[in-house]
């Protein structure tokens, strides 16, 4: 089964940090064969602080977890967390 990160985020508050996260994320996403999908914000039917939703698809749930725990991602994540407020869940399934 595929694995997904579902990310609920606020507006970007630090564009420089967000840019650096994107730069660091590019080779990590290639390594783990991750595909980024921006979801329509209208799916947030009960949101208090989130106005962006992203899904990151991985070939497997194990790869989704391994990517999140990869030392390179742990370093990159510091910039993501400075760039905007967010919440991230990791799920297994097939979200078509």
Write the layout of secondary structure elements.
Blueprint lengths: L1 E8 L5 H18 L2 E5 L12 E7 L2 H9 L1 H13 L2 E8 L3
Antiparallel strand pairs: 1-3, 1-4, 2-3
Helix pairs in contact: 1-3
Question: What does this protein structure show overall?
Answer:
It is a single chain. By secondary structure, the protein is of the alpha+beta class. It has one domain (2-93): Alpha-Beta Plaits (2-Layer Sandwich). The chain has 3 helices and 4 strands; from the N terminus they run E-H-E-E-H-H-E. It has helices at 15-32, 61-69, 71-83, and strands at 2-9, 35-39, 52-58, 86-93. Helix 1 (15-32) runs antiparallel to helix 3. The mean pLDDT is 93.
What percent of residues are in strands?
25-35%
What's the helix count?
A: 3
In the CATH classification, which architecture applies?
A: 2-Layer Sandwich
Per CATH, the class reads: Alpha Beta
Topology, number of strands: 4
N- and C-termini, Cα separation:
12 Å
- Profile the largest sheet: 4 strands, antiparallel
* Strands side by side in the biggest sheet: 2-3-1-4
The secondary structure category is: alpha+beta
Topology as a string of helices (H) and strands (E):
EHEEHHE
CATH level 3 topology: Alpha-Beta Plaits
User: Percent of residues in helical segments?
Assistant: 40-55%
Q: Report the C-alpha radius of gyration, rounded.
A: 13 Å
> Are there runs of 5+ residues with pLDDT below 50, and where?
none
What is the global morphology? Answer: globular
Query: Total domains, how many?
Result: 1
Mean pLDDT: 93
